[in-house]
Amino acid sequence: MAAAEARGAPRRRRVGRTVLIAAALLFLGLFLLMPLLVVFIQALSRGVGTYLAAIFDPMAWAAVKLTLEVAAIAVPLNLLFGVAAAWAIAKFDFRGKSALVTLIDLPFAVSPVIAGLIFILLFGAHGWFGGVLRAHHIRVVFAVPGIVLATLFVTFPFIARELIPVMQAQGRDDEETALSLGASGWQTFWRVTLPNIRWGLMYGVLLCNARAMGEFGAVSVVSGHVRGLTNTMPLHVEILYNEYNYTAAFAVASLLALLALLTLAGKSFLEWRQPELRHAALAARDRTRRENT
Amino acid sequence: MVLAALEVETFTRPRSPRRVLPGFGLTLGYTMVYLSLLVLIPLSAVFVRSLGSGWGHFFAAVSAPRVAASLRLSFGASLLAALINVVFGLIVAWVLVRYTFPFKRLVDAMVDLPFALPTAVAGIALTALYAPNGWLGTGLASLGVTVAFTPLGIVVALTFVGLPFVVRTLQPVLEDLDTEVEQAAATLGASALQCFVRVVLPALWPALLTGFALAFARAVGEYGSVIFIAGNMPMKSEIAPLLIVTKLEQYDYAGATAIAVVMLILSFGIMLGINALQHWAVSRHGGR
Q1: pLDDT tens digit string along A48-73?
Q2: Mutate to test the interface with B, among A121, A173, A180, A245 (most CBs of B within 10 A)
Q3: Is A92–B24 a contact, with Cβ atoms under 8 angstroms apart?
Q4: Fold classified for B55-285
Q5: Whole-prediction pTM value?
Q6: Distance in angstroms (rounded) separating the CA atoms of residues A249 and A236
């Protein structure tokens, strides 16, 4: 009896293993692979000619340009913030550090729609600064500045939360050595700190950029959907889709899907260069909390 | 001896470490200003505006049947989607950490797709799949199940969006888990199921709860992937973020703000819960 059980156990484990792998792959195939495939198949369903025509449509092109512009403003600003925040949090001890880390994560807990709403409440026609802006003929909401603000808000934590754990892991010994050897503060930052954190920095920029280019909800609320002027790529996808122009909608969507695939490839490459990056953001909160308790 | 050590200590390590490296005031100051201007002050505008229109108006706006229905739907569908993600996220994380199979690294990288794929793209892709004439919709329709344009479609979209959270919070914990304890339990006669429930699961609880809370919080606020597949029928398949947009389009700022305040308070509550949970987990296990 016992011997039969002992002989049966490895086989049962093998069966269990196969069932679990099959369940996982089925779930991922259903929820990840099929949505990805359907984008490209729908985009090419009427031939390559229609696909290219949809992509090189002037309105689609204007949307691509605006998306690139918004990302080109939002990502560097959040990069600057991320480096400053990581420097202060990782290299120094001060009271309220863990509260600050939590506050930096705040935009992740806010619905994108609410992220758009707050800027309408501030800068819209009936907002706090609406009157001042109208008097000076400055448009923020339903114009490009509003789109940039909303994008800045939703991508705010990305770079900081990747850099904080990377800088914490580096410690401050390298910088202290450079300073004691006579380097200035800036020299130390450019020649010692920056090379140390370069993979983490690229990782944060990559994730921040993906979200900046793909943001829909927040941008949708503040954009006003003016074609050729305030339409980003995700918003253009929505407009085409709602006009039942499915092939064109999926063609523009396929560009965004390609961006997503490139982002994942870059992410995997950086994780291969520096395996700690994988779970860096999760570890950051634990570490800050441990240091403070 | 002690004196010498003390001298070395004071020599290599100045009494106040924050004086050694420059830039503390500059970087912390910049961080606080940027955080306040971009996040804290704009967010406080929502609360100030909703208080400005008075409590009576606030409660009337929030308890309107259409608003209450949308909040119930948003939180209910998010709860269901997060629970699906806990079950399948555990299976996916387990398989990725414990077993080897072809294309495992590719599968692992793909798990982050919902983070990288813009939500609008996910929305139209899922709708194309589950629409009555779509790849999956046709088969499901013959079984009498309608996914697209029903609350079920909302759950599908929210499951997609929350998928990476549970997997990514569980993976590091599973990797650190000592398999020797499981082997010991198996040697002592525990079945695979007993071993999992009694030995593995207790160690995973904090990570499972964290992943659940993160997936839930993300799903509650989700907009882009849901609106295409939901059908957006008031009282039936209209989520709270969509109702905010609708009210904004009707220039009902007070109504939109009231829904936003309820959602923010609930989301912040969840986030504080996550923090308390992690705090508890870290202090109990002394960190990973």
Answers
A1: 999 999 999 999 999 999 999 999 99
A2: A121
A3: yes
A4: MetI-like fold (1.10.3720)
A5: 0.89
A6: 8
